Structure formats: structure tokens, C-alpha cells
Amino acid sequence: MTGLHAVIDAAIDDYRTETPAEQQTPAGLTDRITEYLASSGYPTALDTGSPA
After folding, report:
1. Where are the alpha helices (DSSP H) in 1-52?
2. Which of 17, 22, 25, 38 is 20 to 30 Å from 52 at the Cα level?
3. How do residues 1-34 score in pLDDT, each as one tens digit?
4. pTM for this prediction
């Protein structure tokens, strides 16, 4: 498992543990993963530069 996968897995596990099941949404999970990636130094936005 790479560091990236470990960060994503941790975000998923924490989200499922900390958020009541009836409040869990795909958007909420995506937000949690994005937060974990950003705090771990991974880029979280696509390059919006001009196309080649």
C-alpha cells in the first residue's frame, strides 16, 4: 500500500467511525478524503493551466 492509499483509507475509516450512518453522504466522504490529502501534503486540485 502506498502512502496515498494509506491516507485515503484512514480518511474513509475515520469518516465511517466518526459520522453517524444516517448522516453519511458521498459528498461528506469526499470532503473528508480531500481534507486528509491536503493535510498530508498531497495536491487536491487539478491543474487548470491551458491545454497543450
Report:
1. 3-18, 26-39
2. 38
3. 789 999 999 999 999 999 999 999 999 999 999 9
4. 0.81
